[in-house]
Amino acid sequence: MTAFAEAVAAGTIGGRLWFYANYHCNLTCTYCLTESSPNAERRVLDAETIRNVADAAVAQGVTSFGVTGGEPFLRPDMIDVLLMLAERLPVLVLSNATLFGGRVFEDVKRLAGSRVAIQISLDSAAPDDNDEMRGPENFAKVVDAIPKLIALGITVRIATTGDHGTPAEKADLCALHRSFGITDDDHVVRPIVHRGRAASNDLGVYATAADLPAELTVTRDGAFWSPFGPTVQGGRLDLDLLLSRTVYPLEIPINAMLEVAGRKPGGGDATLAIR
Ligand code: SF4
Predict the structure, then answer these.
(1) How far is the CA of 94 from the centre of ligand 1 (A)?
(2) Which protein residue's CA is at the shortest distance from atom 1 of ligand 1?
(3) Which domain holds residue 193?
(4) CATH number, domain at 39?
(5) d(CA 264, CA 54)
């Protein structure tokens, strides 16, 4: 067993490895951690690096992959990347689900029967409340996409950002996801984190490394402690949670992560419920 696998088994670090596929997005959400937008610097992590890191990750004892951005499905090669990863381990890809019409949806059909699950952002069952921070027509596009994906046999999870709303409004949101057949176990609620555009807009909770999930995260610009690490503010990549500029060979960021994990007090992530 590798030292990484031992740390995962001990619960010191998480077993999932994240890839930041790209940083551009068709949306410009108010609380976006990466200042993503159609004009954002793309910072695309090339498919060859993803493949090399994935193979090394399997050998190290990584247990699953995550893919995030930006909006990953803006990449023309994203389905091929996801299927390549899913040949190795289960994959969770985060998406705003607003591109799943027309040609992109035809491509997404290739994920049916694979080990790829899609986590979709949805903040409220009230369209206006949902769209306030995510943009016009967001709610309508998301609730159109979810049943189409489920009909393909693809596992869909819902991620709600911002633990706001009255108990009745929260109940409405849970009733909505249950109406699609999405269980409570597949509904993630997490606070807005005070980084990126959220920080610029003075939103969210302050979080340290101890508050954030310890899951090795690979970007074009280096490897980070957590998927909440490689955020962007004022056009600059945040480096406070950088482990190494080198992402491959994977031993370099893994050794850096194990060293930090050895120094970090445990238990903090339960406080803010960031996941
Ligand atoms: S929060 Fe997600 S969907 Fe919204 S702008 Fe950022 S990357 Fe795009």
Answers:
(1) 10
(2) 32
(3) 3-263
(4) 3.20.20.70
(5) 26
Report the pocket of ligand 1 as residue ranges, CB < 6 Å: 25, 27-29, 32, 34, 36, 69-71, 96
Residue 63: which H helix or E strand, with range? none
| Calpha distance 39→42 (Å, rounded) | 8
Identify the three-state secondary structure at position 128.
helix
Q: Whose CA is nearest to atom 7 of ligand 1?
A: 70
Ligand 1 atom closest to residue 135's alpha carbon, by position in its atom list: 4
The phi, psi pair for 64, rounded to 5°, reads -165, 165
| Model confidence pLDDT, tens digit, residues 129-187 | 999 999 999 999 999 999 999 999 999 999 999 877 899 999 999 999 999 999 999 99
pTM (whole model) above 0.90: yes
212 Cα to the center of ligand 1, angstroms: 19
How many domains does the structure of the chain reveal? 1
